[in-house]
Each structure stands twice: as structure tokens, then as C-alpha cells.
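Regression test case RT-17, inverse folding.

Input:
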């Protein structure tokens, strides 16, 4: 083998090793992510989800409301669990409801964000927590 051939062989070997490594780590990444997320969802309480999603920034740590958002007491009076989950995912769909219109006028400098990228089970737990208050 000439020197040049040796270098080529060495590079080829390195390339194959790298390719193998990417393949292995990719597989591990998705597996871990799935199990981690489902374990996390099972362990988190509604209260923790409320904190994690930073609802408190606008609705207060004890659901008491702030200048950026209304208090979240007695929600069961106005929401079923399914409706509330839908609202959290897509508040814009509820813009024509009289009560939501009034809330919007009361908080003109703020708005209720969409949480449609949050796992449905998580939102279910969050809704149950809110409806129990
Ligand atoms: C950036 C501020 C902000 C954040 C963050 C926020 N909200 Fe809101 N939320 C609002 C505002 C403002 C309203 C009033 C309606 C509107 O403006 O669309 C509202 C309305 C609501 C309502 C309806 C209240 C009622 O009386 O029916 C619920 C329920 C609610 N938010 C829950 C949540 C939850 C749960 C989270 C976290 C996942 C959250 N919000 C995060 C600002 C916020």
C-alpha cells in the first residue's frame, strides 16, 4: 500500500465509524425521549403542569389572577373538561363567546396563548386540576 492509499483507507474507516455512531445515538435518542416523556406525564400533577407551562405569569401562582390575566376560580361553572381542553389548545375558537369577549376587553394588553403543542394527557390533567378549584 502506498502512503496515499493508507490515508484513504483510514478516512474511509473513520467515516464508517462516524456513520455507525450517528445511527446508534439516533436510535437511543428517540427511545429515551418517548419513555422519558410518558414517565414525566404520569408523574406530574396538574399543579406542576400549571407551573411548568407558566400559566402563573398571567393567572397568578394561586390562580388569583394578575394584571395580565383573569383569576381561574370556579371554572367548573362555565367549562366542561373537554371544552376546557379545547379552549387551552385553541382559545381563538372561543372568541365569539360573550364571556370570553368580556375578558378580552378587560385584558386588552394581554392574550391567552395557544397550548396546542402540549400533550393531550397533560392538558387533561391540567384541566382536571383547574376544574377542582
Ligand atoms: C400571556 C398571558 C397568559 C398566559 C401565559 C396564560 N393565559 Fe390564560 N388567559 C389570559 C387572558 C388575557 C385571558 C382572557 C381571555 C383572552 O384574552 O383571550 C385568559 C383566559 C383563560 C381562561 C378562561 C378563563 C375563564 O374565566 O373562563 C382559562 C381557563 C385560562 N386562561 C387558563 C390558562 C392556563 C391553564 C394557562 C397555562 C397553560 C394559561 N391560561 C396561560 C392570559 C394568559
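Golden output:
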Amino acid at each position: 500500500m502506498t502512503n496515499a492509499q493508507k490515508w484513504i483507507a483510514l478516512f474511509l474507516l473513520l467515516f464508517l465509524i462516524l456513520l455507525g455512531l450517528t445511527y446508534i445515538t439516533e436510535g437511543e435518542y428517540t427511545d429515551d425521549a418517548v419513555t422519558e416523556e410518558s414517565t414525566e406525564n404520569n408523574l406530574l400533577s396538574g399543579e406542576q403542569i400549571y407551573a411548568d407551562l407558566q400559566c402563573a405569569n398571567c393567572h397568578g401562582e394561586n390562580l388569583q389572577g394578575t394584571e395580565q390575566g383573569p383569576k381561574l376560580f370556579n371554572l367548573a361553572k362555565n367549562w366542561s373538561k373537554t371544552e376546557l381542553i379545547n379552549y387551552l389548545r385553541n382559545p381563538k375558537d372561543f372568541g365569539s363567546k360573550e364571556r370570553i369577549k368580556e375578558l378580552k376587553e378587560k385584558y386588552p394588553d394581554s392574550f391567552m396563548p395557544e397550548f396546542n403543542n402540549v400533550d393531550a394527557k397533560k392538558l387533561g390533567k391540567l384541566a382536571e386540576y383547574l376544574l377542582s378549584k
